[in-house]
Amino acid sequence: MYKNECFNLSNSHLKKKKMYRKSIMALSFMLLFSFNTSNVFAASTMNEEELKTQVRTAYAAIAKEEKPCFSCNAGGCGETTGKPSAKEYGLSLGYSEEELQEGAIGADLGLGCGNPGAIAALQPGEVVVDLGSGAGFDCFLAAKKVGETGRVIGIDMTPQMLELATKNAEKKGYKNVEFRFGEIEHLPVEDASVDVIISNCVVNLSTNKEAVFKEAARVLKIGGRLAISDIVTTSELPEEVKNNVYLYTGCITGATKIDTLESILRGAGFGEIRIDVKDDSRSFISKWAPGSRAEDFIASAYIFARKIV
Ligand SMILES: C[S@@+](CC[C@H](N)C(=O)[O-])C[C@H]1O[C@@H](n2cnc3c(N)ncnc32)[C@H](O)[C@@H]1O
User: Whose CA is nearest to atom 1 of ligand 1?
Assistant: First the structure.
């Protein structure tokens, strides 16, 4: 009798706990996708430093979890419902199965939106810089391609990401990769010392894209190339999306128009500019922040350019 009572009690306690958890989850979901312009998290009212802090906080949390995200963080990395598996996501970004094996040590957090290595045509002996290197996945793939005579430098502004990337490099014993703390708007890299700049889904997070590409041009050698994967807008962002800071840290709101991007690149001293929109990216973008309709106004693109002056 006592046992039964106890069971019933703990059962109803459990039910209450479950209901409580469900309402907390529903509330978080509502907050995440409440595209209300008076939202306290309104990205448009934040200054550059505040937005940068939001970005750093979001990626520090992912680095601490050390769990794959598979959505560039927009839908909340803890939420797995409706998300693809690590392998499915990686293949949809354009990585091969062999490349994904390389990231399986915890370097591939599924935060990219393409595979910059696919357009970089890296050669042995080249010096490569990765803007916003995260846990180091693209750096490690680049390190294999440039070999022992080459060098890869990953730059990131989130200390927890740098720590994780350094730990991953040690695990795999990479000798030609280093990670430096810094902002992509002020690269801790010497002038004209780099052959190739790669980056995966990071420039959209910058509040000053002109500074990013000026810095890229400063550190590249003449003839050096930029080979990045990033998010561009394909139509005007709705106001409620512009105002949602979670969609900013989730690689949606900070996307740039293609012709704006072209003119920034030209202004920074780049030529041979190619911006190839990946129409099939809408399929994985639709799972980043379900309900936001992000796939209707942004897409992933490969951006290639050469430093000509
Ligand atoms: C979307 S994740 C991409 C990480 C990595 N490229 C990948 O594909 O896994 C963005 C990364 O860029 C870094 N980041 C964002 N804005 C940055 C900035 N302005 N300067 C340096 N790092 C930045 C974040 O800390 C985070 O590690």
Answer: 111
Evaluated on CA atoms 123, 128, 130, 133, the torsion sign reads positive
Residues of the chain with pLDDT under 50: 1-40
Same-domain status, 11 and 106: no
Give me the CATH number covering residue 300: 3.40.50.150
Instruction: Count how many domains the chain has.
Output: 2
pLDDT of residue 41: 55
Q: What integer pLDDT is reported at residue 32 of this predicted model?
A: 46
**In the prediction, which pLDDT does 243 show?**
87
For the CA of 184, the nearest atom of ligand 1:
20
Distance between CA atoms of residues 284 and 305, nearest Å: 26
pLDDT at 80: 66
Q: E strands along the chain, which residues?
A: 127-131, 151-156, 177-181, 194-200, 220-233, 256-257, 270-278, 298-307
Evaluate: CB of 109 within 6 angstroms of ligand 1.
yes
Distance (Å, rounded) from C-alpha 95 to C-alpha 99? 6
Residue 67 confidence (pLDDT): 72
For residue 167, CA distances in Å to 35, 160, 177, 211 come to 38, 11, 12, 30
Write down the pLDDT at residue 5: 34
Same domain, 70 and 13: no
Query: What's the 133 CA to ligand 1 centre distance in angstroms?
Result: 6
148 and 216 belong to one structural domain: yes
The residue nearest atom 3 of ligand 1, judged by CA position, is 111
23 and 74 inside one domain: no
Q: Within a 13 Å sphere around the CA of 246, how many CA atoms are in the beta-carbon half?
A: 23
Q: What is the pLDDT of residue 75?
A: 57
Integer-rounded Cα Rg, in Å, for the chain is 21
Return the pLDDT at 76. 62
> Does residue 131 contact residue 220 with C-beta atoms inside 8 Å?
no
> For position 21, what pLDDT does the model report?
45
Domain span holding position 150: 39-307
